[in-house]
Amino acid sequence: MKLTKLIPVVGLAVALPTLALAQDDAPATVAADEFVWIMNSLLFLIGGFLVFFMAAGFAMLEGGLVRSKNVTMQMTKNVALFSLAAIFYWLIGYNLMYPLGDWAIEGYFSALFPAVGVLEPVGVALADADDSSYASTGSDYIFQLMFCAATASIVSGALAERIKLWPFLIFVCILTGFIYPLTASWQWGGGWLSEAGFSDFAGSTVVHACGAAAALAGAIILGPRLGKYKDGVVHPMPGSNLALATLGMFILWLGWFGFNGGSQLAMGSVGDIADVSRIFSNTNMAAASGAVAALILTQIMYGKVDLTMVLNGALAGLVSITAEPLAPTLFGALWIGAIGGVIVVFTVPFLDKIKIDDVVGAIPVHGFAGVWGTIAVIFYGDASIGTQLLGIVAIVGTTFVLSLIVWIILKGVMGIRVSEEAELEGLDTTELGMEAYPDFSKG
Amino acid sequence: MKLTKLIPVVGLAVALPTLALAQDDAPATVAADEFVWIMNSLLFLIGGFLVFFMAAGFAMLEGGLVRSKNVTMQMTKNVALFSLAAIFYWLIGYNLMYPLGDWAIEGYFSALFPAVGVLEPVGVALADADDSSYASTGSDYIFQLMFCAATASIVSGALAERIKLWPFLIFVCILTGFIYPLTASWQWGGGWLSEAGFSDFAGSTVVHACGAAAALAGAIILGPRLGKYKDGVVHPMPGSNLALATLGMFILWLGWFGFNGGSQLAMGSVGDIADVSRIFSNTNMAAASGAVAALILTQIMYGKVDLTMVLNGALAGLVSITAEPLAPTLFGALWIGAIGGVIVVFTVPFLDKIKIDDVVGAIPVHGFAGVWGTIAVIFYGDASIGTQLLGIVAIVGTTFVLSLIVWIILKGVMGIRVSEEAELEGLDTTELGMEAYPDFSKG
Amino acid sequence: MKLTKLIPVVGLAVALPTLALAQDDAPATVAADEFVWIMNSLLFLIGGFLVFFMAAGFAMLEGGLVRSKNVTMQMTKNVALFSLAAIFYWLIGYNLMYPLGDWAIEGYFSALFPAVGVLEPVGVALADADDSSYASTGSDYIFQLMFCAATASIVSGALAERIKLWPFLIFVCILTGFIYPLTASWQWGGGWLSEAGFSDFAGSTVVHACGAAAALAGAIILGPRLGKYKDGVVHPMPGSNLALATLGMFILWLGWFGFNGGSQLAMGSVGDIADVSRIFSNTNMAAASGAVAALILTQIMYGKVDLTMVLNGALAGLVSITAEPLAPTLFGALWIGAIGGVIVVFTVPFLDKIKIDDVVGAIPVHGFAGVWGTIAVIFYGDASIGTQLLGIVAIVGTTFVLSLIVWIILKGVMGIRVSEEAELEGLDTTELGMEAYPDFSKG
Amino acid sequence: MKLVIAAIKPFKLEEVREALTSIGVRGMMVTEIKGFGSQSGHTEIYRGAEYAVNFVPKVKLEIVVSASMADQVVETIATTAKTDKIGDGKIFVLDVSSALRVRTGETNEDAI
Amino acid sequence: MKLVIAAIKPFKLEEVREALTSIGVRGMMVTEIKGFGSQSGHTEIYRGAEYAVNFVPKVKLEIVVSASMADQVVETIATTAKTDKIGDGKIFVLDVSSALRVRTGETNEDAI
Amino acid sequence: MKLVIAAIKPFKLEEVREALTSIGVRGMMVTEIKGFGSQSGHTEIYRGAEYAVNFVPKVKLEIVVSASMADQVVETIATTAKTDKIGDGKIFVLDVSSALRVRTGETNEDAI
Ligand SMILES: Nc1ncnc2c1ncn2[C@@H]1O[C@H](COP(=O)(O)OP(=O)(O)O)[C@@H](O)[C@H]1O
Ligand SMILES: Nc1ncnc2c1ncn2[C@@H]1O[C@H](COP(=O)(O)OP(=O)(O)O)[C@@H](O)[C@H]1O
Ligand SMILES: Nc1ncnc2c1ncn2[C@@H]1O[C@H](COP(=O)(O)OP(=O)(O)O)[C@@H](O)[C@H]1O
């Protein structure tokens, strides 16, 4: 054998006791409860790194859809927002989101607020695990954290090219530390919404529409980019790098397998792994049909295919299936995703019509398609339209109002928008003093 | 514990019955057949998302090797082709490829044509699984789908910078819905080729040479880019972004671990996981030696290293080992991959000599190296040169002929090539009205 | 069922015997030792492909931080170095690093030198496995190889924009085939350092500081880029593509989950998977806090956030936690990573002050932060400051001296630096005759 | 005829183009340049090292117009591009001895 | 000497260069520009919003030649760059008072 | 006034700028161009196919100076940009009939 790093020896030691459980005459076997716990944790770890990578996907998508004079700033925001989300979700969010039945206000507000997230001790035994029938706290934590960060990524895209760095980051801390965990606790923390029977498997509303609501509030307070709606006409500001934007979309699609698949929360049984497999298949189908819907629709409506809409369409398909990626048949996933794709093609111009400037189409993709996906649960899952609407209104409404308040305060206190000159010259040189593509020669 | 999303409760419920199987006096243990089924499904899910990511790899590689005036189009094609493949493989391909012993024409044509793919019910029990000794249908489906989509990605690279969007996409539907599944069924569907003893572990021929054959047929009908072979001399049209192309190659390399590793189709036993490990090691070695071979060879032949050849070399190494990534020793993988690398360095100029314009070198990489890899099986696997050649001729020949017919029809019916002016000005502005890099400033 | 590829039949066959072990009256169950072995191997495979992807991360980070006239060269170096590492680690390194207790010089030099790496036979049974209580050799091999390659990636970044291709690649062969495996064997090969009680979980020193030491030696012998320190002032040479650099950082962050998580070397027990979960959480937290530290510090010190420092900060956080990602609490990971971020902000300019030109900040990130992380083990792990310093001095010192010798010889024999003209015009056109971004138009 | 060369701030391009169109200018050549001038020299910090930014992004307009129109064109650019901030730009006028429209073969005044 | 400035369609560059070489032109400066002219103004749709594309990609050639050769150069460019489609480009000629080849110090006619 | 146009090797830009500043030049326009000249035509191999590289990257400087300074500027550029290697570049001088500083409205000599 290879005498390798010292750790494994310890590691294996930990493994032994459990084996002892088996009778002596038979070979040591694996206890079912340990197996399930191990496999569930593994699902979260795999899902965790896949969803983590979505942070890169958002960054590339946004970096490709802003103008090159704002790319350094967009990169900075994306790296910073994920990092701050990781800190504030640990500091406050995690326990606010999961009260473990311990509420300050029953079903509405966790009693574990404020308290930092704590992991299980090193080499914990199943008996001492926080939840012996679920998965390791660390794996659950890393997985849930990624969802929280996603909401902030959604906001950064919508408000790009004009918002100041620090006010944006302060908002991110509040959103990821407080707003999202609060509303999410109502559903995934076992709060009143879950009691009410609201159904949102992986978060079309809990995560995506929530992020979109925060973005919408910000877009309203912040206002459109200078010249975007000059003289009542929409003046497009084309993205600077569509190859990068396409890469971002693909990375997000990849991450979504973890986003939805991991949300099965278990793969330690035949039924669970089969379900995760269904989820993978449906998620992929919805993304594909969303893209194809946008492809065909833009060809018909504009006479030319619009790549940026196709990218949004795929993402809208993904968001649409997120509320119920398990129950639908592949055909179900196809039409649910396709409608998501159709929605973006119509809502992107719609937002422009009402003069809400969403640089990357985050609100149509995560908001409108998110709402659609949540409603679509009624077709295959068992949910009533009533409770679905209730959940949408509750989460989107609350997030919107709270965000609006925060944005207004930030605006009043420190201002959230860069100077007119800075916006015109580009945030990279004016706010950060660093061009993303400084060379004379290409790159 | 954390009362999290409601789903897991269901999920865990599903898990319980199986545990009941164990005797009461002993702790509940894991049934071996369930364990194997779970692990095999997990292998497919991991392999599935890895191979999915190859779609992004192809997109970046191609986006980097075309000129910037055609990048938006190349991105559009890559997103669209994957999405359409996902739909048509479900609609027709999957059942055409896997007749489950139920043939319309014994060993040649599935009786399940046309029929859409269907997944196992939610929370299926092992007893009700489609195949209790294999893996979940959903996991197999998502994994196989990715292979199908890869064939279309190969075509898009070869025909870049001059083919019209829609005819190309129609071809993709036919290739992924019909042609590939048909020829693949002969081998992986348990058809006549597998009966004949043809050996192609992960598809050097079944997938890669198949895609290359379809691309070759297209390249012939479509003709070279304007000016590529003006006055009998080759006029290179350098790729616009070699950083992007390099990223694409790395992503493909990453995906290949899933492509070959997942093709072990099992990891629920010591022997299987050890084999998957061998496959990972051999796959990596072949890619490395392919790259090094091209590195050294271009230095010697041209006096300068050619990065684009090194990228192709790594990919050729990967394609070469794909037909038998398990049996060879690491040394075997090294020389098999290296020869693959050598092949591209010679066949890329060769294609130019016969005036076949393959923009990214897809035919040398996937075709010539694919054939080589399939033949190389005889050195380590147990396969006869005769049956290997039979399989190559059967699959490449059939794919080529069928594709040729489709291309000719498409050309006659709607035309497959953009106007001369559009090609000269670039497809992005003329066909899509959208530049990939529109800014004055870099990016 | 689906009659799919022929391999699985074989695969499953292999699985059967093991099940036979169970008594006949009870359903076949999974043997614990096999389960552990399978899960450990799976951990290495997942960790392996994640760490592999770091090669792409390094390539993008470096490609984004060099000037566009040197991007083709940087890509070539990154692809070539990984490929050569894969070959030389197999050829020599692996057995030099893991003597399996069989030393030529007890604790210092493996007796298995030189000998090529050999994998377990196809379909190996547990009884015949190289180590029945660990994992498959193939999985261990692929995982360890990725660590080895990382050291070379570190060097390429530091010496960019002026070093000749071939001398660099020769150094890579020596570093990955000999230097790293030798020093690493002292710790992970069960050598004298591990005996001495040195603790470096995933390699803050064994891997990162080692790579940094090799880079430092090279940077000293090679000298700074022309004009970098003209007239005693630092003349920054801004990176050409910060979007690419950001992507690279995110990919590295992703890979680090495999780098640290996989280093638990086991996940076949509740304790181990829970530990891997802790590691994931701590690794993520350290990266986040490293980024935030650099974010805040650059804002305070320079009045503007420096994205390149934030990227370095995240990486420094990752390197800092690598020596002990398991034991610390999340708060521990936070402050350890944050200090790592602070370190880069101060050491990047420090290196410039002493006129050592490190193009991408590899020495601060992997060297200084690596040393810090190794020392920080004493706060949570059980290690004495003495042995930690001993290990740092031993590995960094040895690597530095050996590298220095190699660099000096290379310089004397063939010269390691491109001509002044080549450096000024850029290595892409002069050394490789190929621009990375040749188009007039952007891209 | 005259060739009017103007270096202006990039974000003023669209405005200037509109103003010129409104006074009848029917064509121009626009180039992305780096400008050096009094605006140059402010310092930035990159990875801890302070350096002077000598070149700032500008856009160069080249417009050939009939001699009679030259002054009006110069004036229009001047008024539109003006922000009263340093770096607003410069305008130069040169003589053009002949012009030709490729498509029609028209020459001089008719060509522009 | 004369400075010939020509704005042509990018894909015509190679052809024009060859034609010019064949008549003895030994040097030129090529710049990527955005052109505004009669060709401009066609509309495209971006994310559902219609907008006018005012600037189209062009390539600008700057060639200094002896006065005697100027007309031939202009003519050669005109004939080669011609596609009879709108946007073919324009050619302008200016006077050059002096020229110098850096490497040799040769001046005027000898320098070009 | 005179317009000095110089095509030089990109890596000489900084040096030339410094030299010009030291003799009192207070502004210039810098453009990235592709140059064609005697340096052109060397062959490279791309994916196995040999081809002639006709255009090499250059940087173009455009500097408007008072007539009296023109010669000194030309000379300064010439001496600084010189490497005695082929492709060093060319310098051309044209007449400028008027200049204007947008910000202040200063004209001619005062504007440059
Ligand atoms: N003498 C000159 N020759 C050519 N271009 C010039 C000259 N002086 C200035 N410019 C151009 O005009 C731009 C603005 O000039 P600058 O001196 O920076 O601002 P201001 O005109 O307000 O003093 C410069 O960036 C440069 O491109
Ligand atoms: N007055 C002008 N001054 C400078 N450049 C011009 C002028 N008119 C046209 N051009 C250049 O010539 C190009 C072609 O001219 P355009 O009017 O579009 O086509 P056409 O010459 O066929 O009418 C324009 O894109 C622009 O770059
Ligand atoms: N007649 C010309 N008109 C305009 N630019 C020219 C001319 N001749 C040369 N140049 C520019 O000068 C650069 C250097 O000239 P070249 O002939 O290559 O080298 P050298 O001047 O040393 O012979 C060319 O790349 C081109 O940009």
Q: What is the count of β-strands of chain A?
A: 2
- Enumerate how many helices of chain D there are, as a single number: 2
Distance between the termini of chain A: 49 Å
- The amount of helix of chain D comes to 10-25%
Which ligands, by name, code or SMILES, are bound?
A: adenosine-5'-diphosphate
Specify the biggest β-sheet of chain D: 4 strands, antiparallel
Strand arrangement in the largest pleated sheet of chain A: 1-2
Shape of chain D: elongated
Structural class of chain A: mainly alpha
Strand residue content of chain A: under 5%
Describe this entry's structure for a reader.
The complex is a heterohexamer, with 3 copies of chain A (443 residues) and 3 copies of chain D (112 residues). By secondary structure, chain A is mainly α. Helix content of chain A is 67%, strand content 1%. Chain A has 15 helices and 2 strands. Chain A has helices at 7-20, 32-65, 71-97, 137-158, 165-187, 192-196, 204-222, 242-261, 270-302, 307-321, 330-353, 362-380, 385-413, 420-425, 427-432, and strands at 103-105, 109-110. A two-stranded antiparallel ribbon of chain A has the order 1-2. In chain A, a hairpin with a 3-residue loop joins strand 1 (103-105) and strand 2 (109-110). In chain A, helix 7 (204-222) packs antiparallel against helix 12 and helix 9 (270-302) packs antiparallel against helix 10. The longest helix of chain A has 34 residues, at 32-65. The termini of chain A are far apart. By secondary structure, chain D is an alpha+beta fold. In chain D, strands 2-5-1-6 form a 4-stranded antiparallel sheet, with helices on one face. A two-stranded antiparallel sheet of chain D has the order 3-4. In chain D, helix 1 runs antiparallel to helix 2 (67-81). Chain D is elongated. Chain D starts with a strand and ends in an 11-residue tail after the last strand. The relative contact order of chain D is 0.31. Chains A and B meet through helix 2, helix 8, helix 9, helix 10 and helix 11 of A and helix 1, helix 2, helix 3, helix 4 and helix 8 of B. Strand 7 (98-101) of chain D pairs antiparallel with strand 6 of chain E. Bound molecules: adenosine-5'-diphosphate (3 copies). One adenosine-5'-diphosphate sits between chains E (7, 35-39, 56, 58, 86-90) and D (27-29, 62-64, 101, 103, 112).
